[in-house]
Amino acid sequence: MQTVNTVETLREAVESLRRTGKIAFVPTMGALHEGHLTLVREAQKRADHVVVSIFVNPTQFGPNEDLDAYPRRMEEDSRLLDAEGTALLWAPDAAEMYPQGFATNISVSGVSEHFCGGARPGHFDGVATVVCKLFNQVRPDMALFGEKDWQQLAVIRRMARDLDLSRPHVDAIIGVPTVREADGLAMSSRNQYLSSEDRQAAATLPRAMRTAVAEILAGQPAEKALVTLETALLAAGFSSIDYASLADAQTLEVIDRPGSEPARLLVAARIGSTRLIDNVAVA
User: Which helix H or strand E contains 246, and what residues bound it?
Assistant: First the structure.
């Protein structure tokens, strides 16, 4: 596996790969776990070469969020990616991504305004801007993202559609189903922040979501089912719920009942010092 740290060397390496086949791209912030590696394996199935980026993007963290504490394990991550047969690791620093005088921001209205966008002002501007930069740097044939952050996936697809991106085209931005622990908790780099007691209680989240989905599909209004979900989380030890909503899977407009279009149940809740997000299809 080749590792590059500058845009110039990245472009040279990518063009060399492109001469011998299709390129799939997996953007990450590192601290890799089985969820990330699942994306890499899926990318291997779909393309001739896999490029992975590791960059802890400062512009998507708020002033009181965990940028400094976010886990960084470049050496270990590099070993994992090499073992998976990754062709190229793109590992820039902040100065390379945001050189002096950087003054451009991408804001995606609509899909970014509620849920995590409401709870974390500016977060999705940072996501859209850095992902657009990464797409322009790597220019992959396809890009793969986990469905755990469904809103992020919706924002990236909207950005790619609106800006007429061709590498990758919006239809080549691929969502991969969430990878879960044995007890159902969605895998996340932030799970390591949980104490043993909080980790045990956190498994209430996927259980409560499954119950809510069953109630909604049985005809119960979403508002009532979500009150039951929130009550279960608070009783288990969660300190607060940022949101728990049923939404149209594409537009993320809040709905009370699933209709003809795909729907998604989205939840963000806090336990201890950790904010967990999750979502499931309602169908």
Answer: strand 240-248
What end-to-end distance do the CA atoms of the chain give, in Å? Answer: 41
Q: Which of 36, 114, 123, 169 is catalytic?
A: 36
Peptide bond into 63 cis (omega under 30): no
- CA atoms of 193 and 93, how far apart (whole Å): 24
Q: What are the DSSP calls for 39-71, one per residue?
A: HHHHHHHH-SEEEEEE---GGGS-TTSSTTTS-
Residues of the chain with CATH 3.40.50.620: 2-176
In angstroms, the CA 149 to CA 78 distance is 24
Per-residue pLDDT reduced to its tens digit, 105-145: 999 999 999 999 998 999 999 999 999 999 999 999 999 99
- Range list for CATH 3.30.1300.10 in the chain: 189-278
Q: Which CATH class is domain 189-278?
A: alpha beta
Q: Against a cut of 0.70, is the pTM above it?
A: yes
Place domain 2-176 in its CATH homologous superfamily. HUPs (3.40.50.620)
Q: Tokens representing 194?
A: 């949980």
Q: Does the annotation mark 169 as catalytic?
A: no
Tally Cβ neighbours within 10 Å of residue 180. 15
